[in-house]
Amino acid sequence: MKNLIMCAALTLTAAPALGDTATSLTVGEGFTNPIGFHEASPVFSWKLPKGVKSQTAYHLETTSGTKAWDSGWVNSDQSTFVPYGGEPFSSRQQVDWHVNFRDENGKECGWSESAHFELGLLSANDWTAQWIKPLGESDPKVEAVAWLRRSFSATKQIASARVYVTARGLFELQLNGARVGNDHFANGWTSYHKRIDTLTYDVTRQIRSGENSLEVMLGDGWYAGRLIWEKNNKAVYGKDPELLLQLEITYADGSHDTIVSDGQWEGTFNGPVISSSNYDGESYDARKEVTDWKPVTANPDLGPEQLAPKPLPPVREVETLGVQNITQPQPGHFVFDLGQNMVGWAKLKMPVEKDQTITIHFAEMLKDDGTLYNDNYRSAKSTDTYTAAETETIEWEPHFTFHGFRYVELTGLPQDATPQKDWVTGVVLHSDLRQTGTFTSSHAKLNQLQSNITWGQRGNFVDIPTDCPQRDERLGWTGDAEVFCPTAMFNYDCLAFWKSWLGSMRDDQYPDGRIPHVIPDVLPKWKGDSPGWMDAATIIPWGVYVRTGDTSVLADNYSMMEKLVGWYRSQAVNGLLPKIQGFGDWLQPYAKSQKGDTPFPLIGAAFYAHSAQILADSARILKRDDDARRYADEAAMVKQAFLAKYFDANGKIQNAPETQTAYVLAIAFDLLPEDLKANAGANLVRLVGEADGHLRTGFLGTPYIVSVLDETGHGDLAYDLLFQETYPSWFYSINQGATTLWERWNSYSHDKGFGDVSMNSFNHYAYGAVGQWMYERVAGLAPDPANPGYKHFFIRPLVGAQLDSASAKLETLYGTASSAWTKQNGKVVMDIVVPPNTTATVEFPDNRPPQTVAAGEYSFESGLK
Ligand code: BGC
């Protein structure tokens, strides 16, 4: 009724009343009014106002100067990823757009407010700039910073100005002494030899008529800095960083000026930043001026790399953490506790004495004596230093480094110093993605687990998904990302983030179809061949598609998936993979090796079948019917071979050791016929019982074990595992003080101390993959793969004995969806929200018939089972 009234009112008014028309207009992967946008033929999304049930038609218009495109009325309920149908847009083009829609009663609801976007430079032809760097070479013993500058005069009144800029390496740009933008580690990390992302900044207000100066700092970053644990492994992509910059000014009289990076610039490696390194930290000597300016080396050859606007939000400062506590475990060593394992850096605001060097060490954990435990950083020095020019109060933060830490230690202070909490602030940096999901419950430890999962995601979403943020690794390990992807998609809007990283995966796929272990690939010596890691190429596109409904993620990656499945095929003997190797069920507790007890060939065949099935499903969605049939046959053949080899007629593992993970993968990937599935589930229950109600799964089995138990009718045991307090379990690490997920459940324990230092990260998100089950089953908010992107979804809470209530809220592309339940007087009260233009099917804890509901807010009462 509500929406009827709203739309009726609109037909009487010419101008749209706010709140009645479509809202939240976004372009591409969810960008709001972007500049430097990356797609010439974009897609459009909008939300319908609250009260509307559904859309029956839309009408979309774009205008750009004198050019317009009008979709006309299209009878469709599609309000997400609606394709643009006009002439492709070109570089720099500014576009306005708005949308009108008809609701479920056919009532026209009026034009939305206008949204707009502006294209970046789409091709290399748009660039007249040259790659520049200071003359000569930097000191190879450090990760030197380069400074580049030029001044110029803007002769007339300025109408608008844009800087298009990128680096081989990392850049920080200043115009007239003020920072341009607030991005860090720009331009990010891609497979640099193939693709370099460019950024666009609106500097209209920063530029002035008359004299102006541009100054740029370049850091080695991932391009030229240290990477991986091997000695002297530096300059993987290039020796020194380089800059490409184009400033385009439009004057009020319509004329233009362009200032580009070229031979007119000056450069130097001599300045206050002595070294700035991702792994090793930054040394800053405030006594040094930037000196020795010389002409630069300029190269007009733009190189073979694709230059394209950055398709994901850059890393930014998203939050700061204050110090909770200061200790002095050794004379002169002051340890500041931020209370949370985080990623970023420490900002100093403190008094210093002339010529004094403050040394800043970081650690995720403290030893028993209160001193820093940072042996687990391995060769990463992760140390910043600041040398003071004057006796004064400084404010300082580094430039091209980041640390994974909870504790900050300052040394080098005067003897009589009394450190104050506000001397140190934790600056949290990560890809600036929009937080979309929240999960909460009546159980403090479960809430702590959700917090740990979220912090793990923040710390490891630094332009690419990394395994860990602190040691000499911080790499885009495919397996870790693959298992965490669904959970990540609940917590943050990471569509653009995944699509960008998948682009690098396509760039780095080996010609034979294998996927490197890490993306971007900086481990060329280890040709990737690990099932469960390589399958990031199929599992991530599918996981992203299911949660967004964006079919382009399947289309873009389709041939990568085909090549991977082709590689499996080339290794297979009658559908099985007898020779396959890999990382196995990595870090399974109590296993004979760190690769776990589940045989490689079993894992290999399971992932081959799963990837082939995803490929078949993707072909079906993309309407490649012949492919869909062919790959479905292949998947069925591999499943059959898997079944015949590894399962007896009673659903028990044969020809391989019985492991939890073997059962988990067989059930999770749907490799068993229904009747055997139940038996396999019962066998898994037996194995969990034999482990005294504990996990015996590693990186591959752990993400699925609770959902597999649940799916086979053992939801109570799934809950018991999730709530298990003793090793190995999620709560065990929390009982040892975890504020993030750890690489091993016992990376630290109160009774045994620290685990094996060679691999002892306190910020590894892989085991956080259980977050998916918490959202989908504990709270009960689950996507429907048949109607992706929450066009239709399920409310299906599994009410656990350990909880009195649970709830999840998710900002879907259609609006807020939520599912909350509370036990009340022996019943369960379910409060749910279904966003406009979607439907949900509610499955009740007392197993009464499900009910499908349209957009709206509902409260149901159900009995317990
Ligand atoms: C990383 C992982 C990764 C693994 C592969 C480790 O060093 O930290 O998380 O998946 O190697 O075996």
Draw up the topology in text.
Elements: H1 2-12, E1 23-27, E2 35-37, E3 43-47, E4 55-64, E5 67-74, E6 82-83, E7 94-103, E8 115-119, E9 131-134, E10 146-154, E11 158-168, E12 170-175, E13 178-179, E14 183-184, E15 195-202, E16 210-219, H2 221-224, E17 242-251, E18 256-260, E19 266-268, E20 273-277, E21 281-285, E22 294-299, E23 306-309, E24 315-322, E25 325-330, E26 333-352, E27 357-363, E28 365-366, E29 372-373, E30 383-387, E31 392-396, E32 403-411, E33 424-431, E34 437-441, H3 444-460, E35 461-462, E36 464-465, H4 478-491, H5 495-508, H6 536-548, H7 552-571, H8 600-621, H9 625-646, H10 660-668, H11 674-690, H12 702-711, H13 715-722, H14 730-735, E37 748-749, E38 753-754, H15 771-779, E39 781-783, E40 792-795, E41 805-812, E42 815-824, E43 827-834, E44 839-842, E45 851-853, E46 856-863
Parallel strand pairs: 2-8, 15-23, 21-30, 40-44
Antiparallel strand pairs: 1-3, 3-6, 4-5, 4-7, 7-8, 9-22, 10-16, 10-19, 11-15, 11-17, 12-13, 12-16, 14-24, 17-18, 19-22, 20-21, 24-33, 25-26, 26-31, 26-32, 26-33, 27-30, 27-32, 28-29, 34-41, 35-36, 37-38, 39-40, 41-42, 42-43, 43-46, 44-45
Structural class by secondary-structure content: alpha+beta
Helical fraction equals 10-25%
Overall pLDDT level: 96
Low-pLDDT runs of 5+ residues are 1-18
Counted by DSSP, the helix tally is 15
Largest sheet: 11 strands, mixed
Proportion of beta-strand residues: 25-35%
Distance between the termini: 35 Å
Features:
globular, 865 residues, eleven-stranded mixed sheet, 15 helices, 23% helix, disordered N terminus, binds beta-D-glucopyranose, seven-stranded antiparallel sheet, single chain, alpha+beta
